[in-house]
Amino acid sequence: MLRKLGRVTQSPRRQSADSLPPGQYLTDKFPVLTHGTTPSIELRSWRLRVFGLVEREATYSWEEFLALPQVAVTRDFHCVTQWSRKDNLWEGVPVKELLGRAQGRPEAKHAMVHCYGGYTTNLPLPVLIEDDVLLAHRHDGKPLDPEHGGPVRLVVPSRYGWKSAKWVNGLELIAEDRPGFWEQLGYHNNADPWKEERFS
Ligand SMILES: Nc1nc2c(c(=O)[nH]1)N[C@H]1C(S)=C(S)[C@@H](COP(=O)(O)O)O[C@H]1N2
Ligand SMILES: [Mo]
């Protein structure tokens, strides 16, 4: 269940605050983990495209994206390099909302997430429509820093950090699963930290 806070909705925490997935340690810092460099993105030219196997392809400008329903979730973040950061407050648009508007065709089963800079990651649609999967533009009460994926990043709390793609500019619905950037290089396709799905 989601608790409404005005236009912002807060989702309850799933697991106890003291537990960490196996092999992870806590950090209070927020390390930056990027393959390559931080792209520079101007809000006036920023676009998000939802395309592929959809009935209604859509491209959102920054203003259009901010006008969509917004939610807030507090979730832990687990990087495969073993650091975990607790209680991140993310605010943004649930991916479920965007996919609902796009109306995936019956044959659409997976998505490829595309980013400024060329990074990609793949996810099954049932994971992407979980209530706490957001395209986030705020972290801990402030606009998302460019190094952490600003203006907009994906947040997938139930998976290792590499599935939380930074600088997202596209969601492509596809029928057959296809590996993204790290998945092609041997990272696990599913990436559940509670099952230690680090490498394949
Ligand atoms: N576009 C893009 N997204 C990315 C990455 C990247 O290199 N490029 N790194 C991933 C990895 S491995 C992790 S752990 C998280 C780290 O997010 P942070 O830098 O905000 O801590 O971003 C993920 N998203
Ligand atoms: Mo990572």
Brief description of this entry?
This protein is mainly beta and about 200 residues long.
Structure notes:
By secondary structure, this protein is mostly beta strands. The chain has a single domain, classed as Oxidoreductase, molybdopterin-binding domain (Sulfite Oxidase, Chain A, domain 2). 10% of the residues lie in helices and 33% in strands. It contains 4 helices and 13 strands. It has helices at residues 62-66, 95-102, 125-128, 181-184; strands at residues 3-5, 8-11, 25-26, 48-52, 58-60, 71-78, 83-94, 110-115, 120-124, 134-139, 142-143, 153-155, 168-174. The strands form 2 sheets. Strands 1, 2, 3, 6, 7, 10, 11 and 12 form an 8-stranded mixed β-sheet that branches. It has a 5-stranded mixed β-sheet with strand order 5-4-13-8-9. The longest helix is centred in the middle third of the chain and has 8 residues, at 95-102. The N and C termini lie far apart (34 Å). The relative contact order is 0.21. The model is unreliable at 1-6 and 13-17 (pLDDT under 50). The structure holds ligand MTE and molybdenum atom.
